[in-house]
Automatic annotation (TrEMBL):
Listed name of the protein: Aldose 1-epimerase
GO biological process: galactose catabolic process via UDP-galactose, Leloir pathway; glucose metabolic process
UniProt GO MF annotations: aldose 1-epimerase activity; carbohydrate binding
Organism phylogeny: Eukaryota, Fungi, Dikarya, Basidiomycota, Ustilaginomycotina
Region (Disordered): 360-392
Pfam families linked: Aldose_epim (PF01263)
UniProt superkingdom: Eukaryota
């Protein structure tokens, strides 16, 4: 990599008003907006804060295993009967390992494809299309030395056997692509463009490991009003008055994943239409009702940090083109600020989504050293004083498999079985984010 990993790479396309920027460090989504000065993504002003201010998980890729797992020795068995075990150390909570675990002692080299996880601390290498193992025939162009504005790029790392406590040498590639929008919606307005993030990975064919747990995604956080002066004032810079709607596949209910006091999945699920006291995080979780739900409506006392799942959908198209996979049948979630007239709509082949209202961030005004860095200038248009990234200043959205899914029989048919990657398989998960404005 002859690139500065903290220099944002610009993604855009002719005919699209949507523009996004990405950092090779952590493959971090740095900005998303539809016009000059607009940014839907929470996070620090300065790209290097992602490294120097600690792991606040402000929009990076996360893995090898997203969300939470228990610590210690974990035995697992794949769908074909291959068995193995993990040995995980505690990180970010008693008895818990979060988002791939703590940083290791090995220092990564900026220009090497071999990177030691967790994934948010890796330098992701842009590839020439012909160098890709998983996307060379997908129809997207990529270069190892991007300059100017890109419409698509492929990034890769190789994760060594035993990395972060997970067995098996892996090659991981992520495609990012941006295309024009697809018309208008009566609620959200005119489409400004679509951003695809697609993850593919495989175990090394010459390795001795036959199967390994794997579940990766992005931990990106959205605030649809923070860079609009009037809307930011109306919503006090927070996300609590924004509307979220989830769309499970036709005929499938939306479930809430039950968690224990350590926030580890118990293997139980509740339908989101239940009474507030029936949830492990008591409150209203009915995101699939008609027209969605305002975040503040029935919000739990400690906000939201919850996983919602609908399970596998066999009807999802097996295609590479964004127009063929981002369809009415695969839309899964929207986030809307009525006061700003801005929305994002997500499509995905993944089985569920974690939604987190930044409850772990400090109260406003937040110390930048304790909150991932100084909040972006673009998010202080409503008269917000200088601050770090404070509590409820963004909604983190993480499409993936249910955490602990492969450890519970009750979650096997809800995506847990697919969380153990076997040799010869190619992991293939994707999410498309479409931006709208009124």
């Amino acid at each position: 990599m002859a690139l500065d990993p903290f220099e944002p790479i610009v993604f855009g396309a002719e005919g699209a008003e949507l523009v996004a920027t990405v950092l090779p460090y952590g493959l971090t989504i740095h900005t998303i907006g539809t016009e000059e000065g607009e940014d839907f993504i929470g996070g620090p002003e300065h790209p290097r804060d992602h490294q120097t201010r600690g792991r606040a998980f402000l929009n990076p890729i996360i893995g090898r295993f997203a969300n939470r797992l228990p610590v210690g020795k974990i035995d697992y068995t794949s769908a074909s009967g291959h068995s193995g075990h993990l040995q995980l150390e505690e990180y970010r909570g008693p008895g818990v390992v979060l988002h791939g675990g703590a940083e290791g002692e090995k220092e990564n080299q900026v220009d090497s494809i071999v990177q030691h996880g967790p994934f948010d601390r890796c330098y992701w290498q842009p590839l020439d299309t012909k160098e890709s193992k998983f996307f060379c025939d997908a129809g997207y162009a990529s270069t190892s030395n991007p300059t100017g504005k890109q419409s698509s790029l492929i990034f890769a790392i190789e994760s060594p056997d035993g990395d972060s406590g997970f067995p098996g040498k892996l090659r991981v590639e992520t495609l990012i692509a941006l295309v024009p929008g697809s018309g208008s919606d009566s609620v959200m307005g005119k489409s400004a463009g679509k951003l695809l993030i697609r993850y593919r990975a495989a175990l090394a064919s010459d390795g001795s490991v036959e199967a390994t747990p794997f579940n990766m995604t992005h931990h990106w956080g959205f605030n649809m009003s923070a860079s609009n002066e009037q809307a930011c004032k109306a919503e006090n810079g927070t996300v609590t008055e924004q509307i979220i709607q989830m769309y499970p596949p036709p005929g499938k209910p939306l479930y809430h994943l039950d968690i224990d006091p350590a926030m580890l999945a118990t293997g139980k699920m509740n339908v989101t239409t239940g009474e507030p006291e029936t949830f492990s995080n008591p409150g209203s979780h009915h995101w699939d009702r008609k027209d969605g739900k305002r975040i503040s409506d029935g919000m739990p006392a400690n906000g939201y940090d919850d996983f919602y799942l609908w399970g596998p959908d066999a009807s999802v198209p097996q295609a590479d083109e964004i127009s063929k996979i981002a369809t009415e049948a695969t839309k899964r979630m929207r986030v809307t600020s009525e006061s700003a007239g801005r929305s994002v709509l997500f499509y995905s082949n993944q089985v569920g989504v974690q939604m987190y209202t930044a409850e772990g961030q400090p109260e406003h005004p937040a110390d930048p050293a304790q909150s991932g860095g100084v909040m972006k200038q673009a998010h202080r248009k409503g008269g917000q004083p200088d601050s770090g990234n404070f509590k409820r200043s963004f909604t983190a959205i993480e499409f993936g498999g249910p955490h602990c899914g492969f450890l519970h029989d009750g979650l096997a048919d809800m995506g847990g079985r697919e969380e153990v990657l076997e040799k010869g398989q190619i992991y293939d998960n994707w999410v498309v984010c479409e931006a709208f404005r009124k």
